[in-house]
């Protein structure tokens, strides 16, 4: 086969055959396709798109470019993927809840991207936790604990690793086809029975409009199902942070509250986690009320907390995380309120600006090599629609030093619009199966 013919086909609005796309994906992984060819291919896809069959074939080819895990376990192998938002720490609760319900969750996760936090960075806020485990360790922890949240090894979807690096420097990230193949190639390499996708929509998401979120959701759900993994998607609101905390250790603290059964600590986080877990159990044949009850019981009974603590210990973290989590999480030296400049209702929250404020505090990366400060961020973040008087707190800011706290506090204050009373929209906008 010839990379030039494949690129020319996409350039001329024709979809290459599945065999050609699989060959191209293998060529990305073994470097027989050059950077120039990878860049030209990516640009042709951005400009002309692939049809559904082409998108499925590219996803399968990229998935199969490295190791694809196979499991022999006494329960279903399940996972969730979120397209990224602020205060979205669902994964840390969802994985142990599903494990407590008898499922297995080998969750291959990512780091923060832009204004959004990453599950791996959050886990690493817990001292000692090692997310770089071998495939053998991933298998062992998944089998023994029921869940493991880890980084992808270089053997998982190497074609994506290569193509993503090329896209990053050739203005070819923004393509529903390429984003779909990229996300799913990594997830499907984990050998899942079922997957649920949380497609975020709003000011704190990459997809700001329902139209864009729906287009991405449809592409993800049809492609994953077409590639043989039973998949459903929920389009969910991201017009305010999902949890009332942003920043790595602060989000872990909220998750520990929810895992301790304190669901009032983060009602929206709790509601969405329950919905996503319930959806996955329903895809295994449970009916809705039974699945929902199982999920809530896993949290209420402490079974999910027990799974979480077991996972943390197995990954090198403290053995007493369930009991002593407040002593293990790092704390920032400077803590102070950001207050409202006027009175009124919180009528809008710029989630992206809040996420970038956390990055400016040192809680995320400006460049790939930046070291994260896990202790910094925002807590007690006020919700949409709440009423404030001038001087009331909008949130609590946690910083490494006074100067940074002062400069970031202004950005945080500006992210809240105070105006007329407003009603919150639904948390779950639409479901796709
Ligand atoms: N996340 C990914 O893994 N890939 C993309 O292309 C975009 C977001």
TrEMBL record:
Organism: Yoonia litorea
A GO CC term assigned to this protein in UniProt: cytosol
Swiss-Prot/TrEMBL keywords: Glycosyltransferase, Transferase
Physiological role: The enzymes which catalyze the reversible phosphorolysis of pyrimidine nucleosides are involved in the degradation of these compounds and in their utilization as carbon and energy sources, or in the rescue of pyrimidine bases for nucleotide synthesis.
Record protein name field: Thymidine phosphorylase
Signal peptide: none
Ranges where the Pyrimidine nucleoside phosphorylase C-terminal domain occurs: 345-419
Enzyme class: transferase
A Pfam family matched in the record: Glycos_trans_3N
Keyword DNA repair attributed: no
Family: Belongs to the thymidine/pyrimidine-nucleoside phosphorylase family.
């Amino acid at each position: 086969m010839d990379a030039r013919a494949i690129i020319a086909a996409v350039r001329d609005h024709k979809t290459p055959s599945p065999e050609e796309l699989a060959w191209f994906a293998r060529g990305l992984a073994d470097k027989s396709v050059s950077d120039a060819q990878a860049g030209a291919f990516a640009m042709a896809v951005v400009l002309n798109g692939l049809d559904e069959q082409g998108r499925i074939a590219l996803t399968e080819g990229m998935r199969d470019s490295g190791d694809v895990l196979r499991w022999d376990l006494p329960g279903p192998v399940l996972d969730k993927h979120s397209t990224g938002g602020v205060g979205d720490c669902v994964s840390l609760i969802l994985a142990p809840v599903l494990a407590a319900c008898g499922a297995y969750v080998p969750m291959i996760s990512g780091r923060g991207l832009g204004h959004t936090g990453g599950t791996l960075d959050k886990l690493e806020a817990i001292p000692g936790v090692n997310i770089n485990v071998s495939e053998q360790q991933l298998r062992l922890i998944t089998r023994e604990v029921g869940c493991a949240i880890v980084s992808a090894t270089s053997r998982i979807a190497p074609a994506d690793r290569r193509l993503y690096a090329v896209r990053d420097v050739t203005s070819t990230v923004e393509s529903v086809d390429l984003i779909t193949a990229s996300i799913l190639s990594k997830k499907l390499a984990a050998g899942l029975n079922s997957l649920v996708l949380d497609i975020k929509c709003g000011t704190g998401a990459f997809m700001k409009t329902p139209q864009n979120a729906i287009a991405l959701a449809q592409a993800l759900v049809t492609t994953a199902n077409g590639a043989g993994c039973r998949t459903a998607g929920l389009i969910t609101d991201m017009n305010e942070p999902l949890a009332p905390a942003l920043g790595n250790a602060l989000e872990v603290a909220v998750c520990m509250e929810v895992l301790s059964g304190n669901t009032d600590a983060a009602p929206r986080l709790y509601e969405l986690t329950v919905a996503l877990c319930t959806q996955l159990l329903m895809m295994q044949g449970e009916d809705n009320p039974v699945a929902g009850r199982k999920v809530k019981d896993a949290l209420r009974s402490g079974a999910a907390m027990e799974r979480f603590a077991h996972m943390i210990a197995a990954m090198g973290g403290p053995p007493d995380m369930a009991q002593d989590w407040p002593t293990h999480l790092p704390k920032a030296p400077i803590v102070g309120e950001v207050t409202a400049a006027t009175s009124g209702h919180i009528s809008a929250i710029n989630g992206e600006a809040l996420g970038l404020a956390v990055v400016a505090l040192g809680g995320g990366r400006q460049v790939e090599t930046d070291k994260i400060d896990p202790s910094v961020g925002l807590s007690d973040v006020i919700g949409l629609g709440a009423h404030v008087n001038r001087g009331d707190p909008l949130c609590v800011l946690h910083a490494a030093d006074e100067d940074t706290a002062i400069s970031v506090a202004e950005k945080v204050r500006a992210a809240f619009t105070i105006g007329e009373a407003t009603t919150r929209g639904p948390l779950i906008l639409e479901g796709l199966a």
